[in-house]
Structure of Serine/threonine-protein phosphatase 4 regulatory subunit 3:
Amino acid sequence: MSDTRRRVKVYTLNEDRQWDDRGTGHVSSTFVERLKGISLLVRAESDGSLLLESKISPNTAYQKQQDTLIVWSEADNYDLALSFQEKAGCDEIWEKICQVQGKDPAMDITQDPIDESEEERFEEIPETSHLVELPPCELGRLEEIADLVTSVLSSPIRREKLALALMSEGYIKKLLGLFRVCEDLDNREGLHHLYEIVRGVLFLNKAALFEVMFSDDCIMDVVGCLEYDPALVQPKQHREFLTKTAKFKEVIPITDSELRQKIHQTYRVQYIQDIILPTPSVFEENFLSTLTSFIFFNKVEIVSMLQEDEKFLTEVFAQLTDDATEDSKRRELVNFVKEFCAFSQTLQPQNRDAFFKTLANLGILPALEIVMGMDDLQVRAAATDIFSYLVEFSPSMVREFVMQEPQQTDDDVLLINVVIKQMICDSDPELGGAVQLMGLLRTLIDPENMLASTNKTEKTEFLSFFYKYCMHVLTAPLLANTAHDKKDVQEGSTKINPVCPDNFQTAQLLALILELLTFCVEHHTYHIKTYIMNKDLLRRVLVLMNSKHTFLALCALRFMRRIIGLKDEYYNRYIIKGNLFEPVINALLDNGTRYNLLNSAIIELFEFIKVEDVKSLIAHIVDNFYKALESIEYVQTFKGLKGRYEQEKDRQSQRLNRYRRDAKSLDEDEELWFNDDDDDDDGEAVEKRMEEDFSDSYGKYMEAKKGAANGTNGANSGKSAAIPPASPTGTPNNSSASAVKTVALPATPVVKTALVGLVDYPDDEDDEEDEEEEEQSPRKRPRLSS
C-alpha cells in the first residue's frame, strides 16, 4: 500500500455549479477499516484535521484532467475534485485508483459500461444492427426515453450509438411534435421529461444533430423544451424574449437570405449556450465542445459573406461618415462595425489579416477619426472598441495612417490627438475608457513593436511626429494643474495641494498621464529627455508630491525614480541644477513617522543612489540635505550616503596627495631632460612652432638675456613669474635645443601653484629649499636661440 503524501486542494461543487475550496492538505491512499476498502484521505496541512475521506468504489467514474486534477461524483449533485500541486502526485494517486478498479492508468476516465472485449465485438458486427433501441415516440414513454438519454452520457460508445439512432429514425422532429402536444395539454410532467431529453441530446455533442435541432423550423421548439427546467417553479420565457424583445436591426438591408438565416441562427444558438443551458459540471464541460465549434464556424461564415459583399460594406462606411446621417442611425452603424470586428476574432490569422486590410481600404481609420470626436457617449465607446481591435491587430497600420494625415494648423484633428482628448475628457468617474485608451496609446508609442525597414526607420519617424504634434496635448492637463509656483504652494499655513485638492477624478487622470510619461522615459531615450529638459517637466511633476492623494504622489515619485534609474549624467545635472530633490525630501519629512508606501518608495530611491554609487547625486544630497536627514536612523540609507560621500572625499584627497608628493620626481625628470643631448630631426619643426606660439615671450626673453649679460637686473620684469633671474652661463652649442624645451618650464610651477595651500605637509620647507636651488642652477635658466 502506497502511503506517500501529496499536497492537494480539495474542491466541492456547490448548488450554483461553482467550485468551493475546502482547504489544502496532503492526500494518501490507505485501507480504512470502517469503510471496508482502500480510501482517499486528505489531512489539512495546517492542523492535520481530516478534510476528505472517500472510499475508492469499484463503480465510481473517476476522471483525470489537465495532468493535475482528479474529479468524481460520490452522490447526486455532489461532485469532488482534487487539484494536485505536482503532476507526479496526481499520477501516483491515479494509478492507485485504477489499481483498485482494475483499469488501465493510461485512460483518463475509469468507468465505461462497455468493456474492451464488448467494444471489439461491436467493431466486428455492422453498426446498424447495434444501434441503441429507442422506445416509441409517445407521450407515455417520455420518462423511459429521458432515462435512456441520461444513462448513455457516461459512455462515449453508447452516446455515439444513440446519436445514430436519433438521426436514422427522424426522432428529433417527432419529439418536438410531442412537445407541442404537451404544451397544449399543459402536461408539466411530460414537459419536464422533454427538458431532460433535449438537454441530454445537446450533450451528445454531435454536429449532425445540431443541424436538425437548430434549423429554422425546429430551433424555437428546442428553446421551448429548455424553458421547462424541473428545478424551476415557473418556466422561463425565452421564446418571448427571442421573438419580441430581441430585435434584428439591419443598418443596411441584407439581401442575401442565406446570410440573414445564418445571423438569426447564430444569435439564437449563442443564446442557448450562454443563457439557457446551466453551467456544465466538470464531467459535462467537454460535452458542449461541438456546440462551441458550431457557433465559431457560423461566425466565420458570416464574416466571410459580409466581407465578400463589397457593396454592403462600402455603403456602411459611406453612411457612417456622412454628415447628414442621423445620430441614431450612426450609433447603429458603429455598433454594427464593432460587432463585425468582434466576429473577426474567430478568423484564422491569415483570414484576419485580409479582413482588417479590407476595412483599412474601405476607410475605417478616417471614419473612426470622425466618430470618436462626436458627443454621443455610446458612439464614442463603440468607436474606442473598434480602435482597440485595429491597434491590437496592427499598430504599424495605425501609425502609418497617422503620419500620412495632412498636417493642418490645428493639431486637434489628428487621430492620436482625438484619442488623447477623449482620454482626458472621459466622463466616467472610474475613468474606465481613459484606462483603455491609455493602454492603446502605450501600444502605439512602444518601440518594441515598431518595424525598421531599409528605406525608413518607423521608430524615429513616428516618435519625432508624436513629440512634435501630440506630446503637448498629452501633457496639457499635467502642466495646467501644476502651473502654480512651488513658493506659492508653501505660503499657506497648511500643506496646500494646487492639483484640484478634492477632485479624485482629476488625480486619477494625472496618474494615467504620468504612467504613460514614465513609460516614455524607459523606452524613448532621446525624445523624452529633450522634452523634459525643454519643458522643465520633472519640476512640474514633483509639484504633485504635495497631493493629498498618495497614489498621485507615488506616480510623481515613480517618474523621478525611472529618470534616476537610467544613471544618465545629463539628467543628474538637470536634477542638481534645479534642486529637484527638495520636494521629495520635504514629502519624506512631512510624512513623519508613518511607515507607509510613500515612505518606503522614497527610501528605496535614495537606497538605489547609494547602492549604484551615483557620485554626483550623492554629493548633492549630502551637501544640501544631510542635516535634515541625519536624524532618520531606522534605516541606514542616509548614513550610507554620508559614508559614500566621505569615501569619495578621501579618494580625492589621496589623489591630490599623490600629485603633490610626485613633484620632486617631476623636477628631477626635468633636470635629466635638460641634460639630454637633443639632436633629433624634429627640432627645427618644433622650434618653429614654439616661436610662433610664444612670439611675445620670445622678445622678452631676448631682452632678459641681453640685460643679464650686461650685469643688470632689468630683465626680471620681462620674464614670466615662473622663471626667476639666473646667471648668464649658457652653452652656445645647446642654444637651439634649449629654445625648443623652454616651453616646458612654466608647466612645473603651474602644477605646484595649484597644489599649494590645499594640504600642509611636514616636508614643504625642504621642498621649497630644493626648488630655490634648482631654480638658481644654470641648467634651469632659459636659453633661446638668437
